[in-house]
Amino acid sequence: MPFWGLLRRKQRTTAARAPLSPAQAQSEPPSEQERVARLQRRYLEDVPYLLPKDEAEIDRLNFQHYALMSVQKVHIVVPLENYPQAILDVGCGTGLWAREVGHRFPSCRVVGVDVEPPERLPTTPVNVQFLYSDVLKGLPFDDNSFDLVHQRLLISAIPVRSWPAVVRELVRVTRPGGWLQLTETGGYYHRPGPLSLRVSALLDRAFERWGFDPYIAEHLPMYLQQAGVVEVEKYVYSVVLGEGGGQGGRLLQKDLLALLHALSERMASLIAREEWQRMLEALPAEWAASQTAFQFHVTVGRKPPAS
Questions:
Q1: 273-282 per-position pLDDT tens digit
Q2: b/e per residue, 209-226, with b = 16+ CB within 10 A?
Q3: Which residue positions in the chain have pLDDT lower than 50?
Q4: Which pairs count as long-range contacts for 273-279, CB under 8 Å and 24+ apart, including other chains?
Q5: CA–CA separation, 206 and 259 (whole Å)
Q6: In angstroms, how far is the first alpha carbon of the chain from the final one?
Q7: Strands 174-190 and 128-132
Q8: What's the mean per-residue pLDDT of the chain?
Q9: What is the pLDDT of residue 67?
């Protein structure tokens, strides 16, 4: 097994800042200033997005990207042709995935869309562009426009009632014979301790109360098939949290803790803020003792070729 503790199985069915490097994104305990800043977060008011949209969230999204890439190793898991013409990244966040794919395919048009799209950096390839778009309201593209449609970790942005329509919209803009690649996660732990189970149960209750699906990763194959997608498969990646998982484990632990802290204000309706904070502070020790692993799921499928 590789040093980062990867387990892999296949199942059928705000202004931008320079990204953190993998070295900068290593797991470190938050300073007192960071703990105070967590209580002064900026949230979007016009979209159903549970997490903040501010500089701390930019940092979290960047090291989340490095965590996923250190485990997944490749940006694209589908058998995409060597010379794609157009690729779409829905909910592109800080734009790291789109930029890196643009470097890999310099003759391909790569478009990233988000409700708060990133600004262009000097390192952004000329073939990459970022646009405003809210997938909940429809994408501003013609039918059959993209060879690959990529979407990653919108579990806290798409309400449960909207997922079928969102998937249909992703399929609509995919060209016949093109691919979809959707990455999601949830409360998927391997070897969880009692504290992890309690946190996961609280999050399940909270997400359901807020109208989100905490286990959307399990339902995406069904939504894709209902939308007419074929060759649907799911890849499950699992990484040990913290030092036991190497670089990927350290980055993913930092990402999860930052995400859980970002939800503190919203979780206050279910649990006292002080108790929630104590639980989060105790999680790393439990993860290390139990060698707890966290999973994310990559669901892929193909739009049927034109007859």
A1: 999 999 999 9
A2: eeebbbbbbbbbbebbee
A3: 1-39
A4: 279/195, 279/198, 279/199
A5: 14
A6: 43
A7: unpaired
A8: 85
A9: 87
Contact 239, 5 (CB under 8 A): yes
Beta-bridged to residue 88, according to DSSP, are: 111, 149
Yes or no: say if 65 and 118 are a contact pair by the CB < 8 Å rule.
no
Q: Which segments of 65-195 are extended strands (E)?
A: 86-90, 109-114, 128-132, 146-152, 174-190
How many structural domains comprise the chain?
1
Residue 89 lies in a domain: yes
H helix intervals, the chain: 32-37, 55-72, 96-104, 163-173, 194-210, 216-226, 246-262, 264-267, 273-290
Q: How many CB atoms lie within 10 A of CB 29?
A: 10
Instruction: Give Cα 298 to chain centroid, integer Å.
Output: 10
Domain with 287, as residue range(s), is: 7-23+33-302
Burial letters for 102-130: b for 16+ Cβ neighbours within 10 Å, e otherwise?
beebeebbbbbbbbebbeeeeebbebbbb
Q: Could you tell me the CATH number of the domain that includes residue 265? A: 3.40.50.150
- Of residues 117, 110, 152, 149, the one with CA closest to residue 131: 117
User: CA–CA separation, 76 vs 301, rounded Å?
Assistant: 12
Token couple for 104: 């890999």
